[in-house]
Amino acid sequence: MSATVITNIATLVTNDPSLRDSDPLGPVRDAAVVIEGDRVVWTGESSKAPATDNRVDAGGRAVLPGFVDSHSHLVFAGDRTEEFNARMSGRPYSAGGIRTTVAATRAAGDADLEANLTRYLTEALRQGTTTFETKSGYGLTVEDEARALRLAARHTDEVTYLGAHIVAPEFADDPAGYVSLVTGDMLNACAPHARWIDVFCEKGAFDGDQARAILTAGKAKGLHPRIHANQLSYGPGVQLAVELDAASADHCTHLTDADVDALANSSTVATLLPGAEFSTRAAWPDARRLLDAGATVALSTDCNPGSSFTSSVPFCVALAVRDMGMTPDEAVWAATAGGAAALRRTDVGRLVPGAYADLVLLDAPSHVHLAYRPGVPLVTGVWRRGVREV
Ligand SMILES: [Zn+2]
């Protein structure tokens, strides 16, 4: 198998804390990375790099792990331009807008749904995302949810069953009946295609008892839980996530001190999704408070056509630094190793021997530029599984 060295890297972010004074980013100056097959086999100073068949000169620019976007909703049809325009013109956000996307998604053919999914994956890849999670949740029937998961599973291993996104319109007068469907026939049809189960635990969606029943049923079928928690209001989502050892509690915008403590004393990651607050003009989640308490924080896009229609992790990094109290180092860690932790993965989100060769080359000398130069397309090279894609 032929090896490739990427050399002349001004700043290499490895996320290996053992490399330099326990710095979580494990930065290496004047660095090189050696790739063989789909894996990283060596990292270190350029001058010490082993001989290889192929050589790429990074030109004094920065290399970091590919972004791990651990929260997106990419199996959908239609868009919600009018809703966004109305909201930005003064109308408040309500979870009901999801029904618009449900109707469009149900009406779409498989080929159109997959073409839409592929379009946004390509868009995300160009911006440095090499691992992504995506969910169902716009079908809300047994067949439409299973279809969404089948399509998603062709493109990623990180597939999440979100039949409990909202109560299906047909069950508006019988939410208990819908929970029975989500935990019964729908779960049976969906579980073979998914790794994760998720629930939107929020007023107007599913309460704590319903969410517990749904996630517990999923666990019994071998799915691992994650939760849309505490996004629009205080609620039981975060505590439930910790109680059920969910990999992640996502949003975490409205947290009590007890919620922060629970996250800090658990292996549940707090995944912050600032694209949602940006796109709904809502208050930002307080990343600083979570980090200071000792919680693990991830940053992801929540890419969806209603409340956060961005596929750009760099944009989320810039928001987190500007408005959520994160340092540039913390935000970059959260968007790479943090996302991996939220998916309970150690083979992505870091550049160490044995990890997947998923790399981003920035047209900048350091990762700090992701926040320093917001909105600028700095991603100039992307390798995924050892293959240069961008
Ligand atoms: Zn979401």
UniProtKB/TrEMBL annotation:
Annotated binding of N-formimidoyl-L-glutamate, by residue: Y138, N304, G306
Pathway in which this enzyme or protein is active: Amino-acid degradation; L-histidine degradation into L-glutamate; N-formimidoyl-L-glutamate from L-histidine: step 3/3
Class of this enzyme: hydrolase
Cofactor: Zn(2+); Fe(3+)
Primary subcellular site in the record, as a coarse category: cytoplasm
EC number(s) stated in the UniProt entry for this protein: 3.5.2.7
Keyword annotations: Cytoplasm, Histidine metabolism, Hydrolase, Iron, Metal-binding, Zinc
Residues that bind 4-imidazolone-5-propanoate: R80, Y138, H165, Q231, S307
Binding site for Zn(2+): H71, H73, H228, D302
Catalytic reaction annotation: 4-imidazolone-5-propanoate + H2O = N-formimidoyl-L-glutamate
Cellular location(s): Cytoplasm
Matching CDD domains: Imidazolone-5PH
Pfam families, A to Z: Amidohydro_1
Cofactor binding: number and manner: Binds 1 zinc or iron ion per subunit.
Residues annotated for Fe(3+) binding in this entry: H71, H73, H228, D302
Domain Amidohydrolase-related: residue ranges: 249-377
InterPro entries noted in UniProt: Amidohydro-rel (IPR006680), HutI (IPR005920), Metal-dep_hydrolase_composite (IPR011059), Metal_Hydrolase (IPR032466)
PANTHER family to which the protein is assigned, alphabetical: IMIDAZOLONEPROPIONASE (PTHR42752), IMIDAZOLONEPROPIONASE-RELATED (PTHR42752:SF1)
Role of this protein: Catalyzes the hydrolytic cleavage of the carbon-nitrogen bond in imidazolone-5-propanoate to yield N-formimidoyl-L-glutamate. It is the third step in the universal histidine degradation pathway.
Family that this chain belongs to: Belongs to the metallo-dependent hydrolases superfamily. HutI family.
NCBIfam families tied to this protein: hutI
Identification of the protein by name: Imidazolonepropionase
Protein's organism: Streptomyces erythrogriseus
